[in-house]
Each structure stands twice: as structure tokens, then as C-alpha cells.
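Researcher: Here's the sequence for the chain we discussed earlier.
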Amino acid sequence: MGCNLAIAGVTGAVGQEFLGILAERDFPFNSLRMLASSRSAGKKIEFKGKTYIVEELTKNSFNRVDIALFSAGGGRSKEFGPAAVQAGAVVVDNSSAFRMDPEVPLVIPEINPQAIAQNKGIIANPNCSTIIGIVPVWPLHQANPVKRMVVSTYQAASGAGHSAMVELQEQAREILDGKEPTCEAFPYQIAFNAFSHNSPLGPNGYNQEEMKMVNETRKIFDCPEIAITCTCIRIGVLRAHCESINLEFTEAITPNQVRDLLSTAPGVSLLDDRGNNRFPMPIDASGKDDIFVGRIRQDESIPENHGINLWVAGDQLRKGAALNAVQIAEKLL
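Model: Thanks. This is the structure I predict for it:
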């Protein structure tokens, strides 16, 4: 049973990833509308043996559309999302526009698929860092409630879009050729460098990316009391985010218990080879659906074995964005 599908922002990095994942998963659709800004309208995209013409995204783009996958930025989601709902579509939105709206479900299918049924036309896809961090934390939290999370992220250029990925590659060439790097997508050099995440700082000194992880995790876990603190950093990697996660649990827990819980967790792959000092890297996760987890060890600074350290890597464009949205769409069907 197919649906009439629309993709808003189809020419962007996540939009292109939507197409690849829809094809891989053989997502059933009767019709497909490819939508983007006026400057991309008229472009031709080959998909599943057919040529599609990109149409300009307008408020009239959603006639007879059942599901609209949005990755066109928060402003466009706010402008065109309600029009899609009014036309009868369910919007799965990849921007931050609706995530903290109490009326809008914020969904990771491995964690809270039941929230999908509560939608009033819009379902929000969480932030990429949130998804990659908490998919492996959820099965642990269910077994032994997490009291506190301390997260440090190592975020790829892909989180800032296709232009940022191109900028990383071009800067690397420029620097190796002895030239000054061109900085346009990012405020600072991203090649051979690391810097504090470039989202705006709030009055508390935390940036928007850090606060997204705090607030979204509490909403998805339905656990407003969980204590979370984050430091988000950009690094010179193309498309997979890594995160160092320190967890304090209600009860004692051992690394072997954590491994056992994660070995059967949906969307998680263990890569925890102490013998060969081999743990998840961005190149392991790039192009893969699962979140890779390793460096599982006791936090010996927390008394009575209540603390665990993890290291995770996940593809920001796939599970961090497009795949999660497509999984939501599959559940809508």
C-alpha cells in the first residue's frame, strides 16, 4: 500500500540522503513530488529509473500528498509545514522548528514510536547529536534509570549541510597547497582543526546545539528530571558524529551488563575490541544505519559502580537525519 510522498529540500544534503534511503528500503509510494527553493526549481533528478523535475516549494505544493518529508530549514518548515498539514499531509520535519512544541511528537522510532500516533499533522525529527547519543543510552536507561549524562560531541561538517562538506574538502586542498583556507560555511577553518559548535550562545554560556541535546533528550525519554550537560565541538570530519558519553545510574551497573544490553538493542552495533584497541571511528559509521558503540568502561570516579563511560559514532546524514525520518514515515504507513 503506497502513499503520495513529497520531499521538501530535496536538493540539500539530507534531501539527497532521503532519496538514497527511500530507494534502499524500497519505501512504497504511488507518487513523488520533489520540492526545493526557487533557485533549484527546474533541475532534473533521476530516481528509481524515472526523471523528476524539481518544483518550487510553495503553500500549494501539497495537494493530494499523504506524507511530506521536510529538510528545508526551520524558517521554511514554519512557513510551509502548516500548509502541508492543511492540505491533508503528515509532515515529518527535520528542522528544529517544532521539536519543543508540546503539541508535536519528537520521535526516535527505537525509543518512543508510540508518540507517532499523537501527531496533529506534524512529527519532529530530533537533532542529529541527540539521536546519535541517546539511541544507545535508551536501553540502558530502561534497565537502570540514568540520573545524569555528561556528553562531549565531535561533530562532522555534514551537520552544517552540503556546502560545509565541500568547504572541508576545499580547505584541505588549499592548506596542503600552502594557500589561505576559504571560510564561508563556517566562521573558522574546519580542515585540520576543531572549534566550539557554531550555533548561537545563550545567556548561560551554552550554545543552541548543547541545549537541544538537553531539552530534546528529556522530552523523548519523558524524563524531565534527568540531569544533562553537554559540550559540542566541530571537527574536520565529513559526515559522522562521535560522542563521549558519561552516565551515572540509579543502581550499580557493570561494563559487561552494558554490553549485554546493547548487544540486542535495535539500531546499535558494538565495536568494543579492547585487545586490539579498536573502537568506533567516523569512517566505521559513515554510510551505515546503526550507531556504533565502544570504549565501554566503568567510571571509577563514581562510587559503587554507578558510572559508565561510552564512546559512540553515527552517520549524521543517515540515522542523525534522513533515516530517522524515513523510519517514522514507514510507521505512519
